[in-house]
């Protein structure tokens, strides 16, 4: 194991630190968290699509009914935006987060439709302290957006930069 990785055994902590109080060290490799609840509405699907992804199967219910989807579906980018909001509201520490250098392996697995309820499952895959800037670390998270049937509709792996706990 890389000496800068958090050991998997740390994920067995019985009393995790509340997300708003977390630092880099408080995201143990192997931790799985589930949270959030967002009802997707047709108005939201149409508004987002008309502004940012105006493909007919997102914006026109008549055209969408005759598409391979059989009805209106949300843009994958809208699903990502909902996932981001749920992450900020329930998981990413406002005191430690420093943003992200990017994402990998984004997949839209199943269409999101009006009436779906989305929640998140997040798994800490890897972490390492920055060699050049030891006041921070990098954490690789797998994000999974789940619908009301607990089916994964979107997944992605992404790195986040987090401040380390200040030393006294």
Please outline the helices and strands.
Layout: E1 32-39, H1 42-52, H2 56-59, H3 61-65, H4 76-90, E2 102-108, E3 117-129, E4 136-146, E5 152-163
Antiparallel strand pairs: 1-3, 2-5, 3-4, 4-5
Could you please describe the fold and organization of this structure?
- With 168 residues, the protein is α+β, with helices and mostly antiparallel strands.
- The chain has 4 helices and 5 strands.
- Helices cover 21% and strands 30% of the residues.
- The protein is elongated and about 60 Å long.
Q: Concise description?
A:
This protein is α+β, with helices and mostly antiparallel strands and 168 residues long. The chain has four helices and five strands, in the order βααααββββ.
Strand content: 25-35%
Strand order of the largest sheet: 1-3-4-5-2
Report the sheet with the most strands, covering strand number, pairing sense and barrel closure: 5 strands, antiparallel
Label the overall shape: elongated
Give the % helix: 10-25%
Question: Whole-number radius of gyration?
Answer: 18 Å
Please report the number of helical segments: 4
Please provide the ordered H/E string of secondary-structure elements.
EHHHHEEEE
Q: From the helix content, strand content and strand pairing, which structural class follows? A: alpha+beta
Separation of the first and last Cα atoms: 28 Å
Throw out a few tags for this protein:
alpha+beta, elongated, disordered N terminus
């Amino acid at each position: 194991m890389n000496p800068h990785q958090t050991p998997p055994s740390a994920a067995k902590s019985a009393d995790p630190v509340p997300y708003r109080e977390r630092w880099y060290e408080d995201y143990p490799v192997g931790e799985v968290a589930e949270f959030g609840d967002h009802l997707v509405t047709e108005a939201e699907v149409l508004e987002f699509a008309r502004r940012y992804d105006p493909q007919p199967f997102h914006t026109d219910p008549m055209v969408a009914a005759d598409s391979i989807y059989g009805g209106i579906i949300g843009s994958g980018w809208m699903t990502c935006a909902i996932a981001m909001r749920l992450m900020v509201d329930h998981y990413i520490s406002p005191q430690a987060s420093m943003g992200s250098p990017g994402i990998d392996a984004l997949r839209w697995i199943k269409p999101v439709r009006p009436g779906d309820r989305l929640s998140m499952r997040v798994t800490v895959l890897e972490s390492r302290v920055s060699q050049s800037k030891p006041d921070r670390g990098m954490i690789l998270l797998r994000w999974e957006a789940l619908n009301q049937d607990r089916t994964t509709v979107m997944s992605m792996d992404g790195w986040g930069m987090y401040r380390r706990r200040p030393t006294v």
